Amino acid sequence: MTADVVARVLKGSVDLHVHPAPSPLPRRIDALEAARSAEQIGMRAIVVKSHHHSTVTDVLALGGHGLDGGPVKVFGGIALNSAVGGLNPHAVDLALAMGGRIVWFPTIGLPQHIAHHAAHPNLKFPKLAVHVREERPIDVLDESGRLRPEVYDIIGLIKEHDAILASAHMAPDRILAVFEAAREAGVDRLLVNHPNFVVEATHEQGRRFVELGAMIEHSLCMYDERSSFHNWDVDVLLSWIQAVGAERSTLGSDLGQMNNPLPSEAFTNIVGQLLDAGLSEAELRQLVATNPARMLGLHD
Hints:
Elements: H1 3-10, E1 14-18, H2 31-40, E2 45-48, H3 56-62, E3 73-75, E4 77-79, H4 89-97, E5 102-104, H5 111-119, H6 149-161, E6 164-166, H7 172-185, E7 190-193, H8 203-211, E8 214-219, H9 234-244, E9 249-252, H10 263-277, H11 281-296
Parallel strand pairs: 1-2, 2-3, 4-5, 5-6, 6-7, 7-8, 8-9
Helix pairs in contact: 1-10, 1-11, 4-6, 6-7
């Protein structure tokens, strides 16, 4: 592995999963600082995410303070947790109408996340710095096991705006139900987030998601040994990429938290480790540049 090869791989890369301030969770950087850091390694675009509010207005507000016109494009989105009303089509409509590119289905508000957190009290997840009400459980399925009507409404809005539907922390059976409905509605951009963290999907389930047209995103914070969320060595990441194919895999930093590496630092580190593990430069370009750029609808 050489620094020159890593730099070449990262030129024009895209991070679909950055966690900046403002947030009730402690953050190291804001969106403007994230963009400047991404610029240092030649990134093309980033998407900023909050578990608690739409980041679309954050991006728009920073536009006049140096975010617009820079070499790194910055996009926002919305995660459907309690603070935005859960499965709230009105909030989704506003976020997408104002330029949002990703709708993350519930993360911290999902029964899957809440149950996993209760079962794993030492789960590596940030602690709130601001007191807010506890999340109410938000399930995409009703009591009879059918998708809630709001889910179809939200899918329709995602289709209308040609945005990305991200699985967030849903359990595999919920991901499958939502993705099947989304595909039937004509949604082309499906993203599975960190399939082995909270979601706990198997390789076989990952391949099923891919059959529906999904891209599998892996969080670098889970593999960077300097991260407080380090859970696995890079060989686990490599096994996932081999299981579903580099053409259907991508990397997102899932970073921005206090006391963690910067997203750009994690990309540099993990790309180097994957090169050493045997992935080719062409495969890594798919993971960090081609695939996420295509997901965002960026065209050369």
